[in-house]
Every structure is written in C-alpha cells, then in structure tokens.
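Researcher: Let's do a round of design. I'm pasting the structure tokens now; please hold your answer until I've finished.
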C-alpha cells in the first residue's frame, strides 16, 4: 500500500531538484551576462579615459547629453525587443547599452585620474559590489513579496532623474548633487532587490523563453549596478573635495 506513495514522493522530489538546478543555472547565466557587461564597460571606459583629446571633446560638446538620452532610450525600448524580437537584436541592444555607459562613465574616470584620486574609483567599485551583492542576495532569498515596491521605485527613479537634470543645468550645486546621489543609492539598492526577485520569478522549467529572460535580467541588473557605481563614486568625490 505504501509503495506507490513512496514512488510518488520520489518523483516529486526529483522534479523539485531539477527545477532548483535549472533555476540556479538560469540565474548564473543572468549574473554571467551582467559580469561580462560590467567588465566590458570598465575596460572601454578606461580606454576612452586615456585619450585626453577625446575626453575634452565629450565634456565640452553635446555628446554627453546624446549618450544620456541614448541610455534612457535603450532602457525604455529594450524590454520589448529583448522579450519579443530576435536574439541578435536582444544581444545588440544589451551590448550597445553597455558601450553607451562606458562612454558616459569615462569622463568621471578621467577627472578622478587627473585629480590623483584613482583609488576612489576602486573603492567605489568594491562598495558598489558589496551593496549590489547583499541586496541581490536578499532579493533572491527573501520570502517577502516585493512586487508592491514597483510603483514607488518607478516614481522615485523618475523624480531623481528630473532632479539630477535640473541640478546639472540650473543649480549646479555640490550639496544637491550629494543629496541626489545618496537618494539614488538608496532607491537603486531597493531596485536591485526587486529586480532580482522578479528575474527569479520569470524562470520556467524547460521554457525556451528562459534565455531571453536571462539576457533581459542581466540588462536590468547591469543598469542598477552601474547606476550605483556612478553615484557612489560621485559621493566619494564630493566628500573628498
């Protein structure tokens, strides 16, 4: 009488193990894509920052604003392309996004190097890694449903983008920059946890969509990591000055 029950339990346990292994491989794929993009952006930024003439051109012309608009545009259109378009287009948008961030970060790296504060770049990277890693781990392991955070995080992100643009164009205040960067770090720490939980929930055993979801998930987490890095570096720079 107990044999069928034991067999059923064995099948259920085997299925759970298969799902867990698949989920781990899926999330590992997400983090691998993201890590490659972060490394590529870092190398590309350092390469650009080593060219002083190019740096002056970027910082004194509208190129930096074109890059900023490009990042926002890709952030808006990429989700539909990555989930519904071709895989080639998904990869193209992902790496174009990483390249644009490289262009945008390069002037910051250049200014820190010129100021003799290259150590702050490495310090910012390690702080960012610690913040991102802890929040992503919490988002992955927590049993709390974070989906209710979505509307607040979107509104907070839009508000901070507006505040950053206004300060850059009108006020040009160091204190305002410090405040907005501190708020960005707080908000995007929450974004990282929320995104990680959402990416985890997209996994479906055996689904052909898992690969697309992993690319889009890497796109999301990469954007959060780089945003955290930029603003943590900005905070360190302001505090040093």
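Researcher: That's everything. Go ahead.
Model: Designed sequence:
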């Amino acid at each position: 009488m107990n044999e069928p029950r034991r067999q059923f339990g064995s099948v259920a346990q085997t299925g759970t193990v298969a799902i867990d292994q698949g989920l781990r491989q899926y999330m590992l794929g997400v983090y691998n894509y993201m890590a490659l993009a972060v490394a590529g952006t870092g190398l590309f930024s350092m390469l650009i920052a080593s060219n002083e003439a190019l740096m002056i051109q970027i910082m004194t012309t509208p190129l930096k604003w074109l890059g900023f608009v490009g990042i926002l545009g890709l952030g808006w259109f990429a989700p539909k392309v990555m989930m519904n378009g071709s895989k080639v287009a998904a990869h193209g948008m992902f790496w174009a996004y990483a390249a644009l961030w490289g262009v945008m970060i390069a002037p910051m790296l250049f200014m820190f190097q010129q100021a003799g504060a290259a150590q702050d770049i490495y310090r910012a990277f390690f702080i960012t890694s610690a913040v991102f890693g802890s929040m992503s781990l919490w988002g992955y392991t927590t049993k709390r449903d974070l989906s209710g955070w979505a509307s607040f995080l979107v509104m907070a992100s839009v508000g901070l983008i507006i505040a950053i643009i206004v300060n850059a164009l009108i006020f040009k205040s160091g204190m305002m920059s410090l405040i907005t960067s501190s708020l960005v770090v707080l908000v995007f720490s929450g974004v990282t946890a929320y995104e990680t939980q959402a990416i985890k929930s997209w996994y479906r055993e055996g689904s052909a969509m898992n690969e697309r979801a992993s690319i889009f998930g890497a796109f999301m987490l990469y954007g959060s990591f780089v945003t955290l890095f930029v603003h943590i570096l900005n905070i360190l720079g302001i505090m040093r000055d």
